[in-house]
Amino acid sequence: MKRFRKITELTKADEGTILAFWGVSFAVLFGIVAMSFDMGRIGITQSELQAYADNVALAAAGELDGGATAITRAQAAAANMIADTQTFGNGNNALAGAADYTLVFLSDLPACDSFTACPPTDITTNPADAIFAWVTVANHNVDLTFAAAFSALTGAGTPANAVSARAIAGFTGYACDITPLFFCLPSPTYTANGNIGSVIE
């Protein structure tokens, strides 16, 4: 009889209920912190790859002057002048050389700013037509240690961990603060109005 009385008292006792509440809350809070840690690593990797894509695109675009060797020079500038690093993605941490990106050249910009909705279509291999450089950095997978453990415990899906970056750049030269050039046309058959836009050699 005494044993049943103790069981009844135990079922009515409310000591320690706050401990169970804090235990569940701590597990949820730890999961959120763990997920934010992994999401932060993905965000940092995205920023690093985007900076690299921007620099490669700008280096290549700086050589696109319409000359016969413009594309060759652009490819060399992108491969040899730009180096960077990424911290958390898989593979080599160093970013340098054509193995880390895909570089193609465009004769015109896409119709909108979304790569998904308006992928570039005006790809060219003609140096005279190449006025934009389009760079796509190779995918890097970020290991999700905490997110994978949290997903295994809770049954929630694992977030996407593949990170890449894209950039398009062009180059246009302008001449500013140039003193106006004036010269006379000695022959009466040559008039200024009849030769507008002529190149002076």
Total count of helical runs of at least 4 residues: 4
Specify Rg, calculated over alpha carbons. Answer: 31 Å
Sheet with most strands: strand arrangement: 4-3-5-6
Name the shape in a single word. Answer: elongated
Give the assembly state of these chains: single chain
Distance between the termini: 117 Å
Parts with pLDDT < 50 across at least 5 consecutive residues = none
β-strand number: 6
What does this structure look like?
The chain is α+β, with helices and mostly antiparallel strands. The protein has four helices and six strands. The protein has a four-stranded antiparallel sheet with strand order 4-3-5-6, covered by helices on one side. A two-stranded antiparallel sheet has the order 1-2. 22% of the residues are buried. The model has no long low-confidence stretch (mean pLDDT 82).
Give structural attributes.
4-stranded antiparallel β-sheet, alpha+beta, 201 residues, two-stranded antiparallel ribbon
In short:
This protein is α+β, with helices and mostly antiparallel strands. It has four helices and six strands, in the order H-H-H-E-E-E-E-E-H-E. The strands form two sheets. A four-stranded antiparallel β-sheet has the order 4-3-5-6, with helices on one face.
